[in-house]
Design goal:
Rossmann fold, 8 helices, alpha/beta
Length: about 190
C-alpha cells in the first residue's frame, strides 16, 4: 500500500500557507533516528524553499527531548508547527498541546489529530487505505502470492479543518480554503 504521505508534503505545506495569512516560520520537530521522517524532512525543505518559507528543523531523539522542544516553543518564535507522520516519541501529541497552549496553528498528517485539537490535516483518507489493505489481505488469505499482487495507492485525499481550534486561535480561515475542505470539525 502506498499512502503517498511523503509525496503530499509539498501540498500540505502549500495548504498550510493558504490557511494562515502571514505564515513564514514553521517548526518541524521529528524523530531524527527515523529514516522516513528524514525523507519527509527533505521534501518539506524543498517545498519551504520554493514557497519562501523558513523551516525550523528540530530533530529529537527521545520522548523527553520531544517534550522539551515542543514544550518550550513560543508564538513569537514560529507562525506554525508541522507534524511528522509517525507517532514515535508522541510528537503529534506534544504538537497539539503546544499549539493550543501557545496559540500556534498546527498542520498534521492525519484527521485523527485534527479531531484531537489540531488545526488542520491534509492526507490520504485512512479508511480508504484500510479498505484497500483489507482487500489485499483477503486475496492473500485466499491463496494469492504477495509478490503477484500489485502495489495499490490511495486515491482519495482529504483536507480536514477543526473550526473550534480555529476560533480558539482567533483565526479566520479564508473562504477559498473552507470551500476546498472535505470536512469541518465543529
Amino acid at each position: 500500500m502506498a499512502d503517498l504521505d511523503v509525496e503530499l508534503a509539498p501540498k500540505r505545506l502549500e495548504i498550510f500557507r493558504e490557511l494562515i495569512p502571514g505564515l513564514k516560520r514553521i517548526l518541524f520537530a521529528y524523530d531524527g533516528a527515523d529514516p522516513y521522517a528524514v525523507s519527509q524532512l527533505n521534501r518539506y525543505r524543498e517545498a519551504a524553499r520554493r514557497l519562501g518559507l523558513t523551516l525550523i528543523e528540530r530533530p529529537v531523539r527521545s520522548q523527553s527531548d520531544a517534550r522539551l522542544v515542543l514544550g518550550s516553543v513560543k508564538k513569537r518564535d514560529v507562525d506554525g508547527i508541522l507534524s511528522p507522520r509517525f507517532l514515535s516519541l508522541n510528537i503529534p501529541g506534544f504538537i497539539i498541546e503546544a499549539g493550543l497552549r501557545q496559540s500556534i496553528p498546527t498542520m498534521l498528517h492525519a484527521s485523527f489529530f485534527v479531531e484531537q485539537g489540531g488545526l488542520a490535516s491534509y492526507a490520504a483518507n485512512l479508511y480508504e487505505v484500510g479498505r484497500l489493505a483489507a482487500r489485499m489481505v483477503d486475496r492473500i488469505m485466499k491463496g494469492a502470492r504477495p509478490a503477484d499482487i500489485p502495489v495499490e495507492q490511495a486515491t482519495r485525499f482529504e483536507l480536514v479543518i477543526n473550526m473550534k481550534t480555529a476560533r480558539a486561535l482567533k483565526l479566520t480561515i479564508p473562504p477559498s480554503v473552507l470551500l476546498r475542505a472535505d470536512r469541518l470539525i465543529e
